[in-house]
Write a structure and sequence with these properties.
Length: 376
């Protein structure tokens, strides 16, 4: 009975082990099914030599006008949004006490001048010493200086436009007490207007003043504004390794406003001949960017769409690349790919190294350098 039981259970477990081994061998040797993807070949393209950056619009002259001294607003001589010239009167503070003080000082100055004239006559008649005449002259000069100082204090009671420009929204009212430094209105010179942006240090040798720039803003998505580089910062920021650039644009219609976000394109001389692929062909990962290169496979592989075995087909091999500038639906490859190399351009999530593939470009999207949404 013991021998019989050993034989029976041994046979059962042996068959179980043999069945599992056969199943594992079959699964290990089972060919990987092919997946259908679209493909595209790396092309050589000549792109205009240009740089892209982002920046902000800045007024050529811009200031938030404030009061230099305390006082009550007695008169306002502008409206919100006015266009003013340099020297135009904008606001007046009450200055009755200052004007009274000016008249007192002017009277003192007149008296000091009369006293100086008398002392001069007496000195000419040798009735007084030179020291007394000098004292009278000094007193006259002090009185006149006091008058000029009071006129300066009175001038602080009015606010004028420091340059030509457009006013913003008025922040004060007649009768309001205005403290020193309190905002009155903003004044911006809008034509022309500047755009400030930064570029990495390795572009420093490519830029010179006078190069053409094209600027776009979100407020006017269908318009491009043209200008030229005005100045290049002579030092590089040691923290960011970027350098600042300023360009100037015409703004005759006063459409552009300071503070707007701007996309800047700088046109450089010549063209670049680059190897490019569709952006959809790039597999972006944290450990590096790569593409799946299509090549011939020596194995026969089953095809999902039909029964049986396919003839020796295609497979993909993952290859890491270095990317450059992107334009439209294309991106430049600086290293790792040659012109004419075929790469998978869709279905990248289904792919892995040595994955059998079937190429079907019948419904593949056509990449464009300047894609635009359909009208309507």
């Amino acid at each position: 009975m013991l021998v019989l039981s050993t034989v029976v259970f041994g046979g059962v477990f042996g068959m179980k082990w043999f069945g599992n081994k056969a199943m594992n061998d079959y699964m290990n040797n089972m060919p990987t099914p092919a997946v259908t993807v679209a493909s595209s070949k790396a092309e050589s393209m000549s792109w205009p030599n240009r740089l892209a950056a982002v920046g902000s619009l800045v007024a050529v002259n811009g200031a938030d006008l404030t009061a230099e001294v305390d006082g009550v607003v007695s008169a306002i001589h502008f409206e919100s949004g006015d266009i003013v010239k340099r020297g135009d009167l904008l606001l007046t503070l009450s200055a009755a006490s200052e004007q009274g003080e000016l008249k007192r000082l002017q009277a003192q100055a007149e008296l000091a001048e009369l006293n100086r004239a008398r002392k001069a006559q007496l000195y000419n008649g040798k009735s007084i010493s030179k020291a007394e005449l000098d004292t009278a002259i000094a007193e006259t000069n002090v009185a006149l200086a006091a008058v000029e100082a009071q006129k300066g204090r009175l001038a602080q009671k009015i606010v004028t436009a420091p340059f030509d420009g457009k006013l913003g929204i008025r922040r004060v009212n007649v009768g309001q007490y205005l403290g020193m430094g309190a905002p009155i209105v903003t004044l911006q010179k809008l034509d022309p207007i500047n755009v400030d942006f930064s570029l990495p240090e390795h572009y420093l040798g490519n830029l010179t003043t006078g190069l053409a720039v094209s600027v776009g803003v979100d407020a006017y998505p269908d318009e491009i504004f043209q200008g030229k580089i005005l100045a290049i910062e002579p030092k590089v920021n040691p923290n960011t390794r970027n350098f600042d650039v300023r360009a100037r644009l015409a703004n005759t219609d006063l459409q552009l406003k300071p503070g707007l976000f701007a996309t800047v394109t700088i046109t450089l001389p010549g063209e670049n001949v680059l190897t490019v692929i569709p952006r959809s062909a790039v597999n972006y990962t944290s450990y590096g960017d790569s593409v799946f290169v299509v090549q011939k496979s020596g194995d026969t592989v089953p095809v999902d769409e039909q029964e049986g075995m396919a003839e020796a087909g295609l497979e993909v091999v993952q290859r890491f690349i270095t990317l450059g500038e992107a334009r439209g639906d294309y991106i430049a490859v600086t290293t790792g790919l040659e012109v004419g190399t075929e790469v998978a351009s869709t279905g990248l999530l289904k792919l892995r190294n040595k994955q059998p593939v079937i190429i079907d470009n019948s419904n593949a999207p056509m990449p464009e350098l300047d894609p635009a949404p359909p009208a309507g």
